[in-house]
Design the sequence.
């Protein structure tokens, strides 16, 4: 009896050996469409017309002002993702771009405040110094877990993730404490940045200057990964630590340095938040750009050039979230649920690209 | 005679290759059937199809005359098919008994350890094995682990036993025990498929032999009606020479002197217990021994991958113990590592990347910061030609190469003098022909002999005693972390060497 009732099919998951570009792109689009359908369902349950929601989301990518806003958000996301692409290349699972960005914000704001207070250097050097400080501080924030990993085998996923909170609360402490603007009516904000400390120079607008900075960094990361000794070493370390050791590669040096560069670029991303988007430091200045960057870099399959358009798409999702809250009075949590659903579908799409899911007949005597 | 298995017209394609091209194969009740062929001939693919790991693109499978469909190993096990893989699939931290009953539904919720243990013991004894069911698998020798794998199948009443190159981890003595047990199983009416690429084993154990080459069955006969050279010819498609011409050279200076070397293994147990060994210029020294007696640790210490706790290794008079691999590489020590795919080769990277995994950091391939890819590609082109590496292109992934070509790639990287424009002072080759087919093995042997005659000192670690006796100028037997005997090929007979490897007899020479 049991034999008769048994379902004669089972599910089998098999790793794909190859996949064509066409199939890969159509899977991504299909998962996006499915994601939006599911998001629509959620909105229907909330009593909101999903067509309105779709309309506002498409607006983000069609209206020039909103697209412009998406560019701005894309810049910190993209920089963090570029940083991560270095770490991920050496198989170092840096989940800490968020914290490294906060350290970048801390360092660049620190330079501004020091300059406002003591004014020891000419104004035009401040931006350069801010970048340097943001890069080094972000870099050190990431090379510590890298060093711990290679010397004491501490899992980097845990350390980088934990250090996000340390960085975030450290910035909270500064803003609620010593760095609170005395002229700010008690709000937890730093003093506003003067113009020379804002990323508006050159092209007069942060979105342009930022995109330029993003493109230059992408080019630099591309060159480092493809044409330098370090890039080659990162690649080998990423493929196999044992082989890297066998090939005579200095693992502590390469991993610590790779971690430093990774965190440094993310630190620059932090700088673009305070001196580009906001113009001052405030608590929780990043709405999770550093985490979004993880999805961005995986979707771009570590390709520095792909990171830019993908960041713009995700920047747009952040803008869309703000618009939906403002225009349709949708609660922030609902918007986050939507964003999360979209992420989830994209990740499932990536899984399907790598594995074939088959329903096969159970075997046995025919 | 009753047919247990009949495979008819099996076709299996992988991207770019036809691994099985219309293959027929049969196994009779009570026979040991050797499946012979070079690596990449399609033997393992065929057996993986029978075991349900792959699905054939076309063809039919009959078990005891009934047509069946095998979608997974679970189906295969239900049909009485069992397979012992080359790398054992046991869980080291579990006991023998636990490993054997793992996945068995009949055991029930509450395990009757006593009864099952008794049954396992009896089963083992009936084949002349002494296995303690409550021993942990990590405590067992390779031979015992294999016995547990077989017990696992026998406990499930498997009638069709597939063994994939089962002797590669065994001493000569352990091989004998295995062969006796297999014969007994055949006498009980089971069928045994014995995958191998060693000709002598075919004659030692099998009733019939099927030879595969390039995905096709090219030969099938009763073993008693054929001979070694006929089989070898079918296997490689041309006559094979079993001996190697070696020019006599007088070793002159000492290249490497190892004194009282001690080191721990990964488990923190002393694996090298005072090794003493010298390798001269122009000389090939072979280390033989049962796997796990310190060979791995020794080559790792020499190449700087493992720390030594005591002793010295002088390379041209310089002590390199506990130096970084980079320094040792720079002194001219080449290292052909065991298991190329584990750390000798990165399958996802290109052939050029793999060729320059070590030399990329030296001039003229790098200026200290940037890598000179143009020079690297030009040189790679040259190396691919010189070492006859068959590859689609330099920027193809290394995973697209066959085992023999991967070993050629490693030889090209290690021997060709990319670093410092000179041939290596010392070549450490760990199991350089393991898993290679006859053609590739020949190439490796010839290349190593050539380099020794050109002036390198060579240390080969091998588990194949006959290979060592054929290729080396001197042979050292390693047992329990020590070199127990050093002799020249021809001085000792193989029986005695086997006993020394097993630690039974300490040499008097």
Sequence:
């Amino acid at each position: 009896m049991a034999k008769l009732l048994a379902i004669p099919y089972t599910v089998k998951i098999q790793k794909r050996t190859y996949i064509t570009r066409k199939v890969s792109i159509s899977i991504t689009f299909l998962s996006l469409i499915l994601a939006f359908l599911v998001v629509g369902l959620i909105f229907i349950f909330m009593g909101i017309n999903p067509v309105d929601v779709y309309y506002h989301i498409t607006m983000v990518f069609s209206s020039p002002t909103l697209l412009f806003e998406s560019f701005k958000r894309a810049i910190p996301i993209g920089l963090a993702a570029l940083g991560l692409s270095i770490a991920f290349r050496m198989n170092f699972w840096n989940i800490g771009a968020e914290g490294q960005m906060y350290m970048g914000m801390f360092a660049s704001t620190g330079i501004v405040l020091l300059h406002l207070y003591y004014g020891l250097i000419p104004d035009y050097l401040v931006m350069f110094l801010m970048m340097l400080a943001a890069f080094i501080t972000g870099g050190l924030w990431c090379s510590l877990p890298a060093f711990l990993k290679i010397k004491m085998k501490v899992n980097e996923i845990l350390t980088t993730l934990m250090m996000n909170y340390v960085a975030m609360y450290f910035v909270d402490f500064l803003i609620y404490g010593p760095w609170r603007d005395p002229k700010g009516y008690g709000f937890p904000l730093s003093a506003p940045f003067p113009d020379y400390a804002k990323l508006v120079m050159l092209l007069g607008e942060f979105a342009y200057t930022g995109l330029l900075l993003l493109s230059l960094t992408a080019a630099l990361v591309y060159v480092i990964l493809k044409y330098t000794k370090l890039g080659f070493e990162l690649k080998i370390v990423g493929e196999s630590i044992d082989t890297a050791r066998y090939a005579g590669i200095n693992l502590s040096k390469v991993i610590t340095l790779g971690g430093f560069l990774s965190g440094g670029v993310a630190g620059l991303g932090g700088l673009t938040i305070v001196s580009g988007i906001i113009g001052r430091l405030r608590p929780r200045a990043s709405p999770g750009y550093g985490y979004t960057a993880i999805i961005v870099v995986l979707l771009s399959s570590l390709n520095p050039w792909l990171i830019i358009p993908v960041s713009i798409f995700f920047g747009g999702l952040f803008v869309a979230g703000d618009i939906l809250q403002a225009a349709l009075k949708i609660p922030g949590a609902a918007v986050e649920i939507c964003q999360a659903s979209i992420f989830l579908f994209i990740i499932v799409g990536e899984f399907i690209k790598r594995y074939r899911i088959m329903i096969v007949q159970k075997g046995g005597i025919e | 005679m009753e047919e247990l298995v009949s495979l008819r017209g099996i076709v299996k394609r992988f991207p770019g290759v036809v691994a099985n091209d219309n293959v027929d194969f049969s196994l009779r009740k009570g026979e040991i059937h050797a499946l012979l062929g070079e690596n990449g001939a399609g033997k393992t693919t065929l057996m993986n199809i029978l075991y349900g790991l792959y699905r054939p693109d076309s063809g039919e499978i009959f078990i005891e005359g009934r047509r069946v469909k095998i979608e997974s190993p679970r189906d295969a096990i239900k049909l009485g098919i069992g397979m012992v893989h080359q790398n054992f699939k046991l869980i080291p931290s579990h006991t023998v008994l636990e490993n054997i009953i793992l996945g068995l539904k009949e055991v029930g919720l509450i395990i009757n350890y006593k009864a099952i243990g008794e049954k396992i013991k009896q089963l083992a004894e009936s084949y002349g094995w002494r296995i303690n069911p409550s021993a942990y698998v990590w405590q067992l020798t390779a031979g015992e682990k294999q016995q547990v794998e077989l017990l696992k199948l026998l406990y499930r009443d498997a009638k069709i036993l597939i063994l994939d190159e089962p002797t590669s981890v065994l001493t000569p003595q352990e091989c004998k025990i295995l062969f006796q047990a297999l014969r007994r199983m055949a006498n009980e009416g089971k069928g045994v498929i014995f995958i191998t690429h060693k000709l002598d084993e075919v004659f030692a154990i099998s009733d019939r032999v099927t030879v595969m080459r390039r995905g096709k069955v090219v030969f099938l006969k009763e073993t008693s009606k054929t001979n070694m050279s006929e089989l070898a010819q079918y296997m490689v498609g041309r006559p094979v020479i079993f001996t190697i011409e070696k020019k006599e050279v007088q070793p002159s200076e000492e290249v490497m002197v190892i004194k009282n070397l001690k080191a721990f293994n990964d488990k923190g147990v002393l694996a090298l217990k005072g090794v003493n060994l010298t390798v001269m210029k122009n000389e090939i020294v072979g280390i033989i021994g049962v796997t796990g007696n310190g060979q791995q640790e020794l080559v790792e210490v020499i190449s700087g991958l493992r720390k030594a706790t005591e002793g010295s290794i002088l390379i041209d008079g310089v002590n390199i113990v506990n130096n970084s691999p980079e320094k040792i590489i720079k002194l001219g020590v080449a290292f052909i590592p065991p298991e190329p795919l584990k750390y000798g080769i990165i399958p996802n990277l290109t052939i050029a990347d793999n060729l320059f995994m070590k030399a990329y950091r030296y001039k003229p391939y790098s200026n200290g910061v940037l890598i000179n890819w143009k020079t690297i590609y030009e040189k790679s082109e040259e190396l691919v030609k010189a070492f006859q590496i068959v590859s689609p292109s330099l920027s193809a992934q290394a995973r697209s190469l066959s085992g023999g070509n991967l070993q050629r790639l490693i030889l090209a990287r290690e021997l060709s003098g990319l670093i410092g424009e000179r041939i290596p002072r010392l070549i450490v080759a760990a199991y350089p022909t393991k898993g290679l087919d006859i053609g590739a093995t020949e190439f490796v042997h010839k290349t190593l002999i050539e380099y020794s005659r050109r002036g390198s000192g060579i240390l080969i670690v091998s588990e194949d005693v006959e290979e060592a006796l054929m290729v080396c100028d001197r042979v050292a037997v390693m047992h329990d972390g020590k070199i127990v005997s050093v002799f020249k090929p021809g001085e000792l007979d193989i029986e005695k060497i086997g006993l020394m490897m097993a630690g039974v007899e300490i040499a008097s020479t």
About this structure: Residues 251-278 of chain A form the longest helix (28 residues). The beta strands of chain A are 9-15, 355-361, 364-365. The mean pLDDT of chain A is 90.
